Amino acid sequence: MKNSIPFKLAAFFRAFSRPEASIHPAGAHAPAKIAPPFQARPPASAIFRWLAVGAGALLAAVLCIQPALAQETLVPADSASRWGLGLGVGVERKPYRGMDNDTQALPLLFYENKWVSLMGSRLDIKLPSAGPVSFGLRARYAAEGYEASDSPVFAGMAERKDGLWLGAAAVWRNDIATVSAELLGDASGNSKGQQARLLVERGFKSGAFEFVPRVAATWLDSKYVGYYYGVNASEATAGRAAYAGKASVNLELGLRTSYALAPRQSVFVDLSVMGLGSGIKDSPLVERSSQSTLRVGYLYRF
Questions:
Q1: Of 60, 155, 222, 292, which has fewest CB within 10 angstroms of its CB?
Q2: CA–CA distances in Å: residue 32 to residues 26, 40, 45, 65, 261
Q3: CA distance 198 to 75
């Protein structure tokens, strides 16, 4: 299916590297214009565009399910590099009307040294820390888009593209829990939105098992919600009212469980449920108030 992550990553970065694509990851042809509230903006500067391309190229080199690999990490590592490979399967139940569950088998890869942390679709450039708080520059590729063929509710609507997000992150480790925060902006120029996330998690070990419960809150601005959950006036029908979208806060509960098969080998299960904010639930495209995800996999650490 054209909505799979491998297909979208290839198309995104192939199109993104061409000036005529104007940062639209849809291939050689620019997507059809979308009337307000999805108005086009002037293209990004050449410097910013190539920075985004460089970060995106690294992200496109791997396809994996990042949340199940490790906890948030920006703490400078020792001089030795660490990396791992594996295989995982992810099942995601999105809230859109008539959309089937998205199931994908994906390779896993992570790499970390003193300066860089790569975990699936997320790349961190580590900055100097301040006591127990570490900082970094973050790039994240997010497969959030959809095509008209993905659900009957999208019939007659313009395609929504995936996003490349750039920004900053901070992690505070203490005796109680690990607290992390990030603020990102859409560098792909698709939604032109912003998002912020606050995450609290803590690990518990019992023999070969490790349990990491987490709770998170994600703020999405009105441009993000309007792009992915909005309905333009030209797309409205008798059964699909126009909707501009409004800022929303999603709340997530999750649990990651891993089992050490051997010193360097482990299997994991990651389950999360995210309650959607009113700005998303009010969309005529949405029929569920939550989004759930299940990920399982195997990882070998070298």
A1: 155
A2: 10, 11, 22, 31, 50
A3: 17
* CB-based burial label for 302 (10 Å; 0-12, 13-18, 19+): exposed
Answer whether 14's CB lies under 8 Å from 27's CB.
yes
Residue 265 sits in which domain range?
5-301
How many helices (DSSP H) and strands (DSSP E) are in the chain? 4, 13
Give tens-digit pLDDT for 170-185: 999 999 999 999 999 9
pLDDT digits (tens, 9 = 90+) for 220-231: 999 999 999 999
| Closest among 219, 247, 243, 249 to 230, alpha carbons compared | 243
Residue with tokens 């333009």: 232
Domain total of the chain = 1
- Quote the pTM value: 0.75
Which CATH number is 64's domain given? 2.40.160.40
